[in-house]
Design goal:
Layout (H helix, E strand, L loop, with lengths): L23 E5 L1 H5 L12 H4 L2 H4 L2 H6 L1 H16 L5 H12 L3 E5 L5 H5 L5 E2 L2 E7 L7 E2 L18 E4 L8 H12 L3 E5 L11 H7 L3 E5 L12 E3 L3 H4 L36
Parallel strand pairs: 1-2, 1-7, 2-3, 7-8, 8-9
Antiparallel strand pairs: 4-5, 4-6
Bound molecules: adenosine-5-diphosphoribose.
Adenosine-5-diphosphoribose binds next to helix 1.
Length: 275
């Protein structure tokens, strides 16, 4: 079988008629928020080129010095609060209001999709805006530059950011939900991820199980680019607003839903597996 992969530059691409697709999944990484001013993780200026994750983003670091790890995350919260969603975030949110089935699966912990108005965001790596106690219970929303509390009301122990750090297991329920969404989509759009962190590498293959058309938006190619049917070598904020033909949905009226700014409404009880 001959597999033909088309690499189409955005400039030459016709807008997609979203009405042709039943379920559209956006899978986003740090590059999605880069134009908002939130640093990516890898590459020049990336968070892991300035900070050693071994000191700030793993269970061992938190056990050694919880205050240092919490202060690092407060610094990241302040950075994100000084940023705003860009046109790309807004265009995904507005497509979701016009189309019956648009799902966002994100590796980002910054809450930008929710701030732009996207609802039911599946947050694979947790959120900067929640804390949880290793003694159990539901993660609690905590918004602001500084954390409202460092200690658990019940056990007095240190609260930790509800974030999947290096060496942590992904929340099984969140992962299952993401997989179910990706397996059932017929258009899969990956935006701004290097794809080096599990499970991102498997996602385009999963989407292909349903014969989804797979598009990658990223100015730089990476090891996963060959899995996509189409590559848009451009920035998220430039590529996304023109990606869909809005006229194809005129006349349809899907209800708007209220949403919490940072709330991930899909999130249930935290799994004991997530450390
Ligand atoms: N638009 C689109 N893509 C961009 C843009 C932009 N404006 N700017 C940068 N990119 C791309 C880069 O080319 C790179 O491929 O975004 C990607 C960012 O890659 P990473 O920094 O590795 O971020 P990500 O893939 O989200 O990392 C995955 O690693 O450290 C962990 O938990 C952390 O969620 C994170 C995970």
């Amino acid at each position: 079988m001959v597999v033909v992969i088309f690499f189409v530059r955005y400039q030459n691409m016709e807008a997609i008629d979203s009405g042709q697709y039943e379920h559209i999944v956006f899978f986003t990484g740090a590059g999605m928020s880069a134009e908002s001013g939130v640093p990516t993780y890898r590459g020049r200026g990336g968070i892991w080129s300035q900070y050693r994750w071994e000191e700030y983003a793993c269970r061992e670091a938190f056990d050694r010095d919880p205050e240092k790890v919490l202060k690092f995350h407060e610094m990241r919260r302040k950075t994100v609060l000084a940023c705003n969603p860009h046109e790309g975030h807004v265009s995904i949110a507005s497509l979701q209001k016009r189309h019956p089935r648009v799902t966002v699966v994100t590796q980002n912990i910054d809450g930008m999709h929710q701030r732009a108005g996207t609802r039911n965001v599946i947050e694979l790596h947790g959120s900067l805006w929640r804390l949880r106690c290793p003694c159990g219970g539901r993660p609690e929303e905590d918004i602001g530059g500084k954390y409202q509390r460092y200690r658990c009301k019940k056990c007095g122990g240190w609260l930790r950011p509800d974030i999947v750090w290096f060496g942590d297991m992904l929340d099984q329920g969140v992962m299952e939900e993401a997989i179910a969404m990706i397996r059932s989509c017929d258009l899969f759009v990956s935006v701004g991820t290097s794809g080096v962190v599990y499970p991102a590498a498997g996602f385009p293959r999963l989407a292909k199980e349903n014969h989804a058309w797979c598009i990658e938006i990223n100015p730089e190619p990476n090891g996963l680019s060959c899995l996509y049917d189409q590559a848009i070598r451009d920035m998220a904020g430039k590529a996304l607003p023109g990606l869909f033909d809005s006229s194809s949905l005129q006349g349809k009226n899907y209800p708007l839903h209220k949403h919490g700014i940072y709330q991930n409404t899909n999130r249930g009880e935290s799994s004991d597996d997530v450390q």
